[in-house]
């Protein structure tokens, strides 16, 4: 329960969703801790298995959580199951409940000792806030010892995106124009497709007269692989977004959809990002 945290100044983060969402949540917690001079962060991953699409806690695979300037631990609080930050605009003097709706307000001066975060923490980000988050979480990133890959990586998200109707954000026309730009302007001829749905990816690329091969592995391999390419075409996935953000290839050229989901325009951008017309 939350009363076990009394006497400690800390940030508690309720994790849920896939890897991309988990990174956004951790980044928001780091930014808040940095703004308040706090060092203790608790990751509550107890909700990850409670949804129809069960998720694993992926952060320890990619980030050094336990040997850095913060005191990070993984444990659950029964309080987080109530989802109060998401559904109520409650404000306590020493116990702020933080969601997407009041994240910037809390960053801009809300006092408190124990901050409970429950949200996706994408919508309230400005470009400058995202860059601060990128700097903070980048220090924890477990960067692989690999070389730059030639050609262009193409991430195509199918699966649950199709069921939700979100695949239209990165339409066939989007991929056609993005691949055309890479071929015409940057003389790329070899494309490597990372996807969770090969059948859907084949349909997207059908008739485009493009030379491609699948380069799909484990979640770890796919995440690191995307960041190894200097040329990247991304889906609307937060997984692909963070894989690209964590990539450290100088002079990257990145094409990504304008929207996260239908009607929700993206307000943060990656270094080296271009836009294409659909």
List the helices and strands and how they pair.
Elements: E1 10-14, H1 19-36, E2 40-44, H2 59-62, E3 71-74, H3 84-87, E4 97-98, H4 103-107, E5 114-117, H5 127-138, E6 149-156, H6 160-164, H7 172-186, E7 191-195, H8 198-205, E8 212-214, H9 219-228, E9 229-233, H10 238-246, E10 253-255, E11 259-261, E12 264-265, E13 273-274
Parallel strand pairs: 1-2, 1-5, 2-3, 4-5, 6-7, 6-9, 7-8, 9-10, 10-13
Antiparallel strand pairs: 11-12
Helix content: 25-40%
* Overall radius of gyration: 19 Å
Number-wise, the strands total: 13
Uncertain spans: none
Order of helices and strands: EHEHEHEHEHEHHEHEHEHEEEE
The third-level CATH topology of the largest domain is Rossmann fold
User: Mind describing the biggest β-sheet?
Assistant: 6 strands, parallel
Textual characterization of the structure:
By secondary structure, the chain is of the alpha/beta class. It folds into 2 domains: 137 residues, 3-Layer(aba) Sandwich (Rossmann fold), CATH 3.40.50; 126 residues, 3-Layer(aba) Sandwich (Rossmann fold), CATH 3.40.50. Helix content is 32%, strand content 18%. The protein has 10 helices and 13 strands. The strands form 3 sheets. Strands 8-7-6-9-10-13 form a 6-stranded parallel sheet, with helices on both faces. Helix 10 links the parallel strand 9 and strand 10. Helix 1 crosses helix 10 and helix 9 crosses helix 10. The radius of gyration is 19 Å and the shape is elongated. The mean pLDDT is 89.
């Amino acid at each position: 329960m939350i009363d076990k945290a009394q006497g400690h100044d800390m940030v508690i983060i309720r994790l849920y969703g896939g890897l991309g969402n988990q990174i956004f949540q951790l980044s928001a917690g780091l930014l808040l801790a940095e703004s308040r001079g706090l060092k203790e962060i608790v990751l509550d991953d107890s909700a990850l298995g409670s949804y129809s699409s069960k998720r694993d806690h992926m952060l320890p695979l990619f980030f050094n959580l336990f040997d850095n300037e913060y005191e990070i631990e993984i444990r659950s609080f029964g309080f987080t199951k109530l989802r109060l930050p998401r559904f109520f605009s409650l404000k306590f003097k020493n116990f702020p409940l933080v969601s997407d709706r009041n994240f910037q307000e809390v960053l801009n001066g809300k006092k408190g000792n124990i901050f409970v975060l429950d949200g996706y923490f994408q919508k309230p980000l400005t470009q400058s806030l995202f860059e601060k988050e990128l700097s903070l979480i980048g220090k924890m990133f477990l960067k692989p010892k690999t070389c730059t890959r030639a050609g262009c990586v193409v991430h195509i998200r199918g699966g649950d995106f199709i069921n939700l109707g979100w695949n239209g954000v990165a339409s066939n026309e989007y991929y056609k124009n993005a691949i055309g730009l890479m071929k015409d302007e940057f003389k790329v001829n070899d494309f490597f497709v990372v996807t969770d749905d090969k059948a859907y990816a084949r349909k997207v690329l059908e008739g485009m007269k493009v030379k491609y091969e699948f380069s799909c592995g484990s979640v770890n391999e796919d995440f690191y692989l995307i960041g190894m390419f200097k040329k990247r075409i991304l889906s609307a996935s937060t997984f692909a977004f963070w894989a690209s953000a964590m990539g450290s290839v100088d002079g990257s050229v990145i094409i990504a959809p304008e929207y996260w989901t239908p009607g929700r325009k993206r307000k943060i951008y990656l270094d080296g990002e271009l836009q294409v017309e659909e």
